[in-house]
Write a structure and sequence with these properties.
alpha/beta, 8-stranded parallel β-barrel, globular, disordered C terminus
Length: 338
């Protein structure tokens, strides 16, 4: 299966945000490709793949804790990208082979500046190891039937970034995502679109430009400035996922409530749901106001549903799941009798 990486609006990978409900929300508003949050290869290798009949999802569940590391569903099969954190080609392949039949593509994170990633030789630590980058990408490409890409940041000079991009292109990847900031830069620092343009001019594969996209009009602005084939958005989508809509953003309260409903429908992790809601609230309001305090105190999705007036929907979904569970148990018992 191949993905056309040209002229696409892309949801960026975001830790604790890019779970199934948010990816489906972004796609509903117009995202063409949706990246999941980064999952470390070590963690995935400690999981079992399970079909969740009650939800209609495919879950990768930690054997020791029962926690869901990654959840997807057939609806997003042709657009969801599994982003992996890794520092080893063999281990990366073992992890990728677990999920490759359930996702559209694999992406290797080479831009995360967090200390956890750097200390493990992952994320932005890979930017200074071009031979290891080559080993990881070529190993994955040689053994998988789905596209393999990576996402990088700018290096210390435009020349270094271009040289790395050219080496990555030689591995045969079909596209490259470039975040227009260096490792030391913070989100408040402006993204350097001109240095993304340098990369675009130096390679022939599609470049996915990332950085400072906050309105629908910015998609076209960054494409014109950089010459990039496609555009990736992170915070702009987090604050209002309807940024992908060509008809304009919806009120954030509407988007927020739809996120809550999707979190209920797909039984999203409560910590992920709370984190995403709090990031929205911080941007538009304040966590010290009643809504923010209530989200912080919430312990379950039932609490969240009550806060946003969705308790009826929560009860409806809960009853539906209970009925499905009873049917599955009945089918299983009948099979044993036979």
């Amino acid at each position: 299966m191949e993905i056309d990486y040209r002229d696409k609006l892309v949801l960026a990978p975001m830790v604790r945000v890019g779970t199934l409900p948010f990816r489906l929300l972004a796609a509903e508003y117009g995202a063409d490709i949706t990246y999941g949050e980064e999952i470390i290869d070590h963690r995935l290798l400690k999981c079992d793949r399970r079909i969740n009949g009650a939800l209609g999802s495919v879950d990768f569940v930690e054997k020791a804790t029962g926690a869901v590391a990654f959840r997807t569903c057939p609806e997003e099969r042709n657009r969801v990208v599994f982003q992996m954190g890794t520092s080893d080609a063999v281990r990366a392949l073992r992890a990728a082979e677990m999920v490759c039949r359930d996702v559209a593509a694999i992406d290797v994170n080479m831009g995360c500046p967090r200390s956890f990633s750097l200390s493990g030789g992952m994320g932005a630590a890979l930017l200074s190891k071009p031979d290891l980058i080559h080993d990881i990408l070529t190993t994955l490409k040689r053994n998988l039937e789905i596209p393999v890409t990576c996402k990088i940041r700018l290096l210390n000079s435009p020349k270094e970034t271009v040289e790395l991009a050219r080496r990555i292109e030689k591995t045969g990847v079909p596209a490259l995502a470039v975040h227009g900031r260096k490792v030391a830069d913070r989100p408040r620092d402006p993204a350097n679109w001109n240095e993304i343009a340098d990369v675009v001019s130096a390679v022939s594969i599609p470049i996915i430009a990332n950085g400072d996209v906050f309105d629908y009009e910015d998609f076209e602005r960054i494409k014109i400035t950089t010459g990039a084939s496609s555009v990736m958005v992170a915070r702009g989508a987090l604050w209002n996922a309807s940024i992908f809509s060509s008809t304009g953003k919806l009120p954030w309260d509407v988007v927020k409530r739809e996120y809550v409903r999707k979190s209920i429908l797909w039984d999203n992790d409560i910590k992920s749901t709370k984190h995403t809601l709090k990031e929205m609230i911080i941007h538009y309001s304040c966590l010290e106001l009643p809504e923010g305090k209530s989200v912080t105190k919430s312990e379950t999705l039932a609490d969240i549903a009550l806060l946003y007036g969705e308790e009826g929907y929560y009860e409806q979904i809960s009853r539906s799941r209970s009925s499905l569970k009873e049917l599955h148990e009945l089918d299983f018992s009948n099979t044993l009798v036979i």
